[in-house]
Amino acid sequence: MYNFLVELLRFVDLKPLLLTQKKSNPNPSFEIPAKVLLTGKVLQFVSRDAATEFVARLFATPMKFNAPERELMMRESAKKERIVLPSTGKELQVYKYGYSKTRILLVHGWAGRGTQLYHLADKILENKMMVVSFDAPAHGISDGKRTNMLEFIEAIRLIEKKYGPFDAAVGHSFGGMSLINAVAGGLKVNKLVTLGADNSIPEIFSYYVDKMELKPDIARRLKRRFEKKYNLRLDHFTSEHQAERIKIPVLVIHDSEDRFVPVSSAVAIRQKLQNGALLITHGLGHHKIFKSPVVVQRIIDFLQ
């Protein structure tokens, strides 16, 4: 029965089932459609292995949102190039915004785009610095349907090789977590900024499984599945553990009302940094934080 269900899942189009965003909520949060919740519960009743496979595929498939007009303006004005991720052959979209010897790498979060931080990108240009950003695998107009942190980190390293060296890097959410891992692993930048960065992949699994109204055992199974598939320990990627290896100045920014990543993640990361600063904002949530003029100016001041 399990093998039949897994084979069936291979032919399921997950796009109509993915997370949708409430537009009427002034503090947006992701809600999972009832049909997804029902599918997960039915699979959990029949086979927890099949339910784990279903959740794993959903988790690895980022939802693609339409880019607002201002982002499209940045996309059109930036110099665009395509590069290939060696491990998978996926083509990535790269954006070179402005020109300067001082180069800043921007890394978006899960379900984001390389032009999503355009408020910050514009301000960086105003201050005579250059932006390099990219659509991560399975994001924006890059190739792929599914991805993971290993591909995020590989993409960052490839961007450094082709477009670096970078004076600094800025990452939002999953992108911030990926940058922490990349810097701890040898990415050479002089300064690092994270906004709403995740701390622990297993914690993300637990949050995701809880949102799907499934039993906590599915999160544990999900962790074992990924560790077996990629022959690694997910705890290795925990941001606060990797932060201990980072010596450069790091500015950790987080909002107290972030509904996606708890502010405790920022506190844990800051406590392990050798040269870190912590900025806690209020009322900006997970996405408005990178649009705030106050936050953007604080980042510019830090970069300079």
Q: Please, could you describe this protein's structure?
A:
This protein has 2 domains: 2-61 and 202-230, no CATH class; 77-199 and 238-303, Rossmann fold (3-Layer(aba) Sandwich), CATH 3.40.50.1820. The strands form 2 sheets. An 8-stranded mixed β-sheet has the order 3-4-6-5-7-8-9-10, with helices on both faces. It has 304 residues and is an alpha/beta fold. Strand 9, helix 11 and strand 10 form a beta-alpha-beta unit. Mean pLDDT is 90; it is low at 1-29. It has helices spanning 2-9, 34-46, 48-59, 69-77, 118-126, 149-163, 174-184, 201-211, 216-230, 239-243, 263-272, 293-303, and strands at 20-21, 30-31, 79-84, 91-97, 103-107, 130-135, 168-172, 191-195, 250-255, 276-281.
